[in-house]
Specification:
Elements (H helix, E strand, L loop, with lengths): L1 H48 L3 E4 L13 E6 L6 E13 L2 E8 L5 E8 L2 E8 L4 E8 L4 E6 L19
Antiparallel strand pairs: 1-2, 1-8, 2-3, 3-4, 4-5, 5-6, 6-7, 7-8
């Protein structure tokens, strides 16, 4: 009889321990999902804080570009804010993926690096003379390409040697 009371007591302690562990685990999960939703909200606020500048350009013509050709990028709604890319290099990196390197205006003005896969283009445009950098991407909701300024504080820059690009 004493053994059965001891077993019952152990069973009760074990059962209470399991209940406590399960309830603490659910509290941690809720806390974790709350932190995750706050992070998602912060990311969405950051991405909406920088304005997208919608652009127009000849996407279909990019694969046929050669060194010395030019590609015009027109910022929609802002007359005079066009960029003329002077193509330096067009190279097929893998089947179906093409890399394009270009000067923006001249080698002193800026540089662009674009990657083309099918009919989608992504990349970075760095304007040395204005000390601005933009990401080049596609907005599927608006069915249009855009430039979005890159915040310098968000860039991961390693300390050390002199900059590789001019005028920095």
């Amino acid at each position: 009889m004493i053994i059965s009371k001891k077993s019952a007591f152990n069973f009760l302690v074990l059962g209470l321990s399991l209940v406590m562990a399960i309830s603490c685990g659910k509290a941690e999960q809720n806390k974790g999902s709350e932190v995750e939703s706050n992070q998602v909200q912060a990311i969405n606020e950051d991405s909406s804080a920088t304005e997208k500048m919608y652009i127009e350009m000849d996407i279909e013509g990019i694969p046929s570009l050669k060194r010395g050709d030019s590609l015009e990028i027109s910022v929609t709604g802002n007359e005079g804010e066009n960029m003329n890319l002077q193509i330096r290099r067009v190279q097929e990196m893998m089947p179906g993926i093409t890399s394009v390197s270009a000067f923006v205006g001249s080698s002193e003005t800026g540089q662009a690096t674009l990657t083309v896969k099918g009919q989608k283009v992504t990349g970075i445009i760095d304007l040395f003379d204005q000390k601005k950098k933009y990401t080049f991407a596609y907005d599927s909701a608006a069915s249009s390409y855009y430039l979005q300024p890159i915040n310098p504080e968000d860039m991961d820059v390693l300390p050390g040697s002199k900059p590789l690009s001019p005028n920095e």
